[in-house]
Amino acid sequence: MNVIDITGLCKQFTGKRMTKVDALKGIDLKIAQGEIFGFLGPNGAGKSTTIKCLMGLIRPTAGTAAIMGEQIGSVASRAKIGFLPENPAFYDYLTAEEYLRFVGKTFKMPEALLTRRADETLKQLELWDARKRPMRGYSKGMVQRVGLAQTMIHDPDLYILDEPMSGLDPIGRALVKDIILDLKKRGKSVFFSTHITDDVEKVCDRVGVIVKGQLEALDSVENIVRQGIEGYMVQTRLSRGNHEALGGFAVARTNETFIEYFVPVAGFNEFMALAGQHSVEVTLVETKRKDLESFFLEIVGKGK
Amino acid sequence: MTTIIGITLKGIFRDRVFQGIMVTACAFVLIPGLATLSMRQVTELSLTLTLSLISFIMLMLSVFLGGTSLWKDIERRYTFSVLGLPLSRQGYLLGRFGGTALFLLLVAVVLGIAAGAVVAFTASVHPPDRPIVWGTVALCILFDVLKYILLIAVAFLISTVSTSFFLPVFGTIATFLAGGVTQQVYEYIHSPASKNLSPIMKQLATGLYYLLPNFSAFDLKVNAIYGLPVPANGLFLTVAYFVVYVGLLLSFSAAIFSRREMR
């Protein structure tokens, strides 16, 4: 079953002087159970608008969407989600512990379970020492971690996270990545938006790129990475064999011990055969690929 | 909804605006001294001042808590996280309203006890000509609470359509001022003294009379101060008016708020 099912989702905003802005132009997207989905896009592309539609914060102009079979905007659909808004803000007069208890109560968690889960998530998100302090004294990173804690307290099957790494330092980012990977291991589904490709590459199964309200690309990270192989960097020992036989391949770098060739994917077998025939010792083969960022920039470039 | 009521109460108790306004309650200690300026009706003046002070504090609380509760949640982006929880928007709005109204009732109880102590002290030093009818005093405070709960409902309605702080706050103040005189205006335009007024003006005033809240019906100060009897049917009508008016205001507020886009 799909945990998220979006069909033809459109959103038009009316701006000043009644100007119409098409923020979403017919998004079709399905997220499977247990999938970690990265929703990539530049600023203003429509990532948060999509998420706000899913959460019922704004109404789509056209199209439909369901969360685990429940129509978006309904209380029932939100009861199955852990949601982290972009740049979250919580009642700052409350402590982290009080806020988590409040969230747990809205999910009708039993008292004993709520206390146990609140303690666990506070410790996991490294908020234990600050749990009794009002959130108005928290740093941005701490508030972001409270945001993550409140998504996890009721252990939902689906997490919708809008820019979960925003405002976190490298340690915090690593912590969030670990949490997402742990959720994946436990069969949870995560739909998260970001504009940082590195986050997606490390944790996602699939990625969608939205540009100007349209889903321009949708593929598995594995496919993207595989398609992105440009060639190989092959290191050979200078002192062994006849290197003149490899003259048809571009030399990328050389020093007194090694010569490194750049071998395109199509020429790799030929290169290896020639190297074998002419006793050239291959000491290292390194795949050269476009990273997800290049893929993202390419898609965004096309979208523009 | 009860969780929202709980959070609302916690927020108000920790709010600096509330703490500031409650400092005003310290003025109670000045009342016995000030009341002696009357010389002849010391206890009556003491009662007038305490009831007026309670009314003033509740007005401040209604305007600033009622007018800013929803606006603050939207402005500070709390709604994004709270409305992402399995709560209906109507439940959220009613919870916020219920929390603020309940708080007002608690404040009235506390201030009522303080007022009772002040008036009892004054009466012991300067015995009044007429006995103090404590039941009527309590009724006066209770109807004041109803009046300000109604005002909070007005503030919530304005907040559901407003994107700024000014409209809910000043709109609530304007409604309070207008609601205090609608009865007199209505009586004036339906009296011979208004024969020179244009029919359009009269119709407009009559329309506003029905549209705006009528706060004068909730005012039992004179009855409380002079120990006058309060007609039961009048109280019943006022309570019915309160229930219907607040019900309508909250229904409109909920309908508007449930359609509001949280961009």
From TrEMBL, chain A:
It comes from the Bacteria. Keywords: ATP-binding, Nucleotide-binding, Transport. The keyword Transport applies. It comes from Oryzomonas japonica. GO terms for molecular function: ATP binding; ATP hydrolysis activity. Residues 1-237 form the ABC transporter domain. The lineage of its organism: Bacteria, Pseudomonadati, Thermodesulfobacteriota, Desulfuromonadia, Geobacterales. SUPFAM superfamilies: P-loop containing nucleoside triphosphate hydrolases. This is ABC transporter ATP-binding protein.
TrEMBL record, chain B:
Coiled coil: none annotated. Keywords: Membrane, Transmembrane, Transmembrane helix. The keyword Membrane applies. The chain crosses the membrane at residues 17-37, 49-71, 91-120, 132-159, 165-186, 234-257. This is ABC transporter permease.
